[in-house]
Amino acid sequence: MKILLLGEASFVHSTLRNGFEALGHNVTLVSAGCIWDCPRDIDLSRNMRLGMLSGLKVIWKILANLRLFIGNDIVQMNDFHTLPLKLGWNKLFFKFIKRYNKRVVRGCWGDDIVVFDAQAKGVLAYSDTHIGTQAINEEENKWRIEEQHLPEFLSCCRYVNKHADAFAACLYEYYVYYNNAACRSRLHYLPLPIEIPDIKDIRIKGENWPIKVLVGIQKRRDFIKGASVLASLVEKIAAEQPDKVEVRKVYDVPYIEYCKMLEEADVLVDQLYSYTPAMNSLAAMARGTVIIGGGEEEYYEFIGEKELRPIINARPQQDDYNLEVLREALLTPGRISELSRESVIFVRKHHDYMKVSKQYIEMYEKLLS
Questions:
Q1: Is 12 helix (H, G, I), strand (E, B) or coil?
Q2: Which of 26, 158, 320, 353 has the fewest CB atoms within 10 Å, i.e. the most exposed one?
Q3: Which residues contact 57 (CB under 8 A, 6 or more apart)?
Q4: CA–CA gap between residue 67 and residue 345 (Å, rounded)
Q5: Within 10 Å of residue 225's Cβ, how many Cβ atoms?
Q6: CA distance readout (Å), 15 to 38, 101, 194, 204, 305
Q7: Which helix (H) or strand (E) holds 167?
Q8: What is the DSSP letter of 126?
Q9: How many CB atoms sit inside 10 A of residue 150's CB?
Q10: What does each C-alpha distance from 210 to 16, 265, 338 come to in angstroms?
């Protein structure tokens, strides 16, 4: 099968490329690399210091490699805004991709009008923009939501959604948001793919006091993630039991340095507003690190998981609940080690990149048939 992957989100496409190639498929990955500078075959990143020339360079790279954008069995886009260009160019590019390839899959992996509208309606009990139908962090979220409501964003998103052959939702939340009349018949849940480390390289965490908790905060995005809110609760427990809990809080650490810190940590504070673990959480869990973040019961039921509950689940604006859950997990002897073992098993069971890659290929084959 000839597959073209367009765009990137936290190593999802680069991980899938490795899986697809291992399964014998011909794969090309074209992206701007996202914030983590993910690997790609054709680089569409822009140097904004060059102004308009940086955009012309992106167009030139597409034209210079035009043969790669034609005649694919599957083209998969990370979202509707795949190119680092204005939305008019993205809409035109999608029309070209749709015309000259067999099937086009749109990833449901991030913010768009469908997501924000569903959150505002209280489709889930909470999100990073609403608790039920009550808006939160309104000033911080204002630009995110207003951007998606701009006419050019609306036009491009709606056009791509109307004409995409399938939607691939990578999280339970996105599946729920896109499970509407317009998209339901084309909607698929495909778990996030994680490259699993060799079992001999995995250290079960939390076997000794103190439990080491890492809080990695991206200042610019903390209002979306909520890690600082969770950090204050963990720090309160650490102040009460300094011999049992040790907190390390860092800000805007480079990715390589962050990975080294993560290796030393027993527990990672991740996201307050999520129902489910995303790439950062899953990559940590695969290495035995326990996550404080999204692990709601609806999610486990959705994926058919009846036994494993590896995530220390947190909920926004429920400090008493969160403190109770955190104290039980962090202060109960052997509990973190138990969750560490479950975390490794959970990721191997549900997110192994080869298993997920096969699920994608099965979806592609059905589309092509």
A1: helix
A2: 320
A3: 46, 50
A4: 42
A5: 22
A6: 10, 23, 7, 24, 24
A7: strand 166-169
A8: B
A9: 12
A10: 37, 11, 16
Q: What is the pLDDT of residue 201?
A: 83
The pLDDT of residue 35? 75
Question: Average pLDDT for residues 259-277, to the nearest whole number?
Answer: 93
> How far apart are alpha carbons 335 and 208 in whole angstroms?
11
**Is the Cβ–Cβ distance between 95 and 162 less than 8 Å?**
no
For residues 35 and 39, give the distance between their C-alpha atoms in angstroms, rounded to a whole number. Answer: 11
DSSP character for 352?
A: B
- Distance separating alpha carbons of residues 361 and 1, to the nearest angstrom: 9
Element housing 303 (H / E): helix 297-303
* Contact in structure between 37 and 108 (CB atoms under 8 Å): no
pLDDT band (50, 70, 90) for residue 134: very high
Q: Of 259, 261, 269, nearest to 293 (Cα)?
A: 269
**What is the predicted pLDDT for the residue at 54?**
81
- Positive or negative, the Cα torsion across 34, 39, 44, 46? positive
Q: 75 CB contacts (<8 Å, ≥6 apart)?
A: 3, 4, 6, 97, 101, 103, 104, 105
Interval 323-359: pLDDT, tens: 999 999 999 999 999 999 999 999 999 999 999 999 9
> What does the alpha-carbon distance between residue 279 and residue 354 come to, in Å, rounded to a whole number?
16
Residue 251 contacts residue 222 (beta carbons within 8 Å): no
Measure the CA–CA gap between 2 and 296, rounded to whole angstroms: 37
User: Rounded distance, CA 69 to CA 40, Å?
Assistant: 15
Q: What angle do CA 173, 176, 179 make, to 5 degrees?
A: 150
